[in-house]
Amino acid sequence: MKLGKFEQQKQKQLGMKDNSSIGKWDKKISKLCSKLNKSSEYYTSSSCSGRVILIKVQEKKQKGLFLYRNHSKITLASLKNELDKARKMEKGLIDFRLEPCIIHVACNTLTGAQVLLDKAKLVGWKNSGIIASRKRIFLEARSTEHIEFPIINHGEILVDDKFLKLIVKEANRKLERTWGKIDNLERLI
């Protein structure tokens, strides 16, 4: 039996080598991706369960921007250790970021995309939408938990330990919240 265009694209995408910067599935979102990929209506093209990063501030995206990346909760000691390493490595401006969960899903039909979008928004993935072109229909679902600010400039850490303690607490709280949204969406599908 000949596969339709969507099924061919799905097989090709799911058969590709993982080109993500971490090189493997993000465990906290893998069950949701697996559930979507088992459906005849959807397949995932990329995803992240949320992460804490230290990143060089650059105009263009390029290799070597990430100085630290963690998809788990952080501690004050680990953050201070990574900040110390980053300030010695890079002499420019460095941002601290907490990025929320995000997933890109190819959809077989616009109706299927709308159904998934409605479910994503219902559980709190508020920064979500449908992207349609002549070739494909994609849902980009992104949660709202986010923190971003400059933390190092020319080798100098710009904040004190009191602020770092607050950031660790808030980053971990927001990670837990974004992970809960992943679980809630998986249950709705």
In summary, what is this structure?
This protein is α+β, with helices and mostly antiparallel strands and 189 residues long. It is 41% helix and 26% strand. It has a single domain (5-14, 30-188), classed as tRNA wybutosine-synthesizing-like (SSo0622-like fold), CATH 3.30.1960.10.
Strand content: 25-35%
Helix content: 40-55%
> How large is the radius of gyration?
19 Å
Mean pLDDT: 91
Number of helices: 5
Structural class by SSE content: alpha+beta
Q: Any idea what the CATH architecture is?
A: 2-Layer Sandwich
Spatial strand sequence of the major β-sheet: 3-2-4-8-9
| Domain unit count | 1
From the 3D structure, determine the CATH topology: SSo0622-like fold
Shape: elongated
Q: What is the CATH superfamily?
A: tRNA wybutosine-synthesizing-like
Compressed to H and E, one letter per element, the order equals HHEEEHEEHEEEEH
Biggest pleated sheet: 5 strands, antiparallel
Uncertain residue segments: none
CATH C-level name: Alpha Beta
In total, how many beta strands? 9
Distance between the termini: 28 Å
